[in-house]
Amino acid sequence: MSAAALRPLAGLAAGLVFGLGLVISGMADPAKVLAFLDIAGAWDPSLAFVMGGAIAVALPGFLLLPRRGAPALGGRFELPTARAIDRNLLLGAALFGLGWGIGGFCPGPAFTALTLAAPGTLVFVPAMLAGMWLGHRLRGGRLAGPAAPAR
Amino acid sequence: MPLDPTPFTPWMSLLGGVLIGIASLMVLGLLGRIAGISGITLAAMRPGGDRGWRIGFLLGLVAAPLAWAALGNGAVAQSVPGNLPAMALAGLLVGAGSILGAGCTSGHGVCGLSRLSPRSMVAVPLFMAVAAATVFAIRHLLGGGA
């Protein structure tokens, strides 16, 4: 099998490991996310440990792996290069935080919740996809055409 | 009604976080990309481009709780807010905000902070603060929950 043919399988494997991480950590449970954000209530600080564990592993990797020259399955490293703190970044992060605080879902956990088919999930996910399309339009992007500059 | 309080689970949360870090490095080392869920989702929805691995990644996310249950762990505990209009608004805001801000909890939170990206170092504290303020307003000022 060529390296290019392995790319979808690598994506599947990474998504599975990522999803298991969300499930095991409790991040996939909106109740736990909202309890983490509820500092003035019955605060559950667990999710700080999720971020801590993930960054402890990823930080040295992001430092070392790009020095290898090319990714293992072909192509090249394509990492964001933007550095400007602009209006879109601030407005986007604020809108994201507002939605995250209302629903307790960010995009990854929302996908892991699909098969459990709770009504709130089945409303949230299509709205999120529509919102992504809207966000893309607000950035001036078209739906078809070359890849978006967003990651 | 707000959802019930949840127990403090430092070790399981740390272990899950380590898995998320490993998965992010799989995407980086094998595919050369950022494991940002919002960016992956948008690119997977758009025709053309390098969609194969992205669709695979999303399928992996969707399948993860089934794999967890198949390993003998039983169903995953998830309490999803039941206020459907609020959840529709939340989804719209999360989707639009993540693309406008070029990243969510994974792209800015895990990958961006690990890359020491100055944009992520602004975005993450900002969305955490707004999210915490939102929960405070809903639960302690309005006395409800989604």
UniProtKB/TrEMBL annotation, chain A:
Top-level taxon: Bacteria
Listed transmembrane segments: 45-66, 87-105, 111-134
InterPro entries: DUF6691
Matches recorded under Pfam families: DUF6691 (PF20398)
The keyword Transmembrane helix is annotated on this UniProt entry: yes
Keywords: Membrane, Transmembrane, Transmembrane helix
Protein name: YeeE/YedE family protein
TrEMBL record, chain B:
Membrane-traversing stretches: 12-31, 52-71, 86-110, 122-142
Main localisation: membrane
Stated name of the protein: YeeE/YedE family protein
Origin: domain of life: Bacteria
Species per Swiss-Prot/TrEMBL record: Paralimibaculum aggregatum
Stated family: Belongs to the TsuA/YedE (TC 9.B.102) family.
Membrane topology classification: Multi-pass membrane protein
Keywords, in A-Z order: Cell inner membrane, Cell membrane, Membrane, Transmembrane, Transmembrane helix, Transport
Stored InterPro entries: Sulf_transp_TsuA/YedE (IPR007272)
Subcellular localization, as worded in the UniProt entry: Cell inner membrane
Organism taxonomic ancestry: Bacteria, Pseudomonadati, Pseudomonadota, Alphaproteobacteria, Rhodobacterales
